[in-house]
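subagent[fold] <- orchestrator: predict structure for attached chain, return tokens only, no commentary.
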Amino acid sequence: MKELDSIHHLTIHVSDVARAVRWYSTSFHCDVVLEEPTFAELRFENLLLRLCLPSQEPQHIGFEREDAASFGVLGAGRNGRRSLYLADPTGNVVELIEDSE
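subagent[fold] -> orchestrator:
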């Protein structure tokens, strides 16, 4: 039986990062990992939720993969790890992050 992939994070667009962080952190049990004027990262039990302004990066779903480089050329990601963006058959954006473990 093969091992299933896990979702590392979801990135959604917000119009006001600070306001969105306040709402999520008071409405749900999560930890604020990082908060900047244009980007924030919230840790939930099962994944990271990233909030960003639309100008920062596309809305997407992120996966960590040992074989991320087999999908294309990896570039520097926001957190210093190498990654790349691609689209599924419907046009949804997927980020593949090099799993360094």
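orchestrator: received. Logging for downstream: The beta strands are 7-13, 31-35, 39-43, 48-52, 60-65, 75-76, 82-87, 93-98. The chain is about 10% helix and 40% strand.
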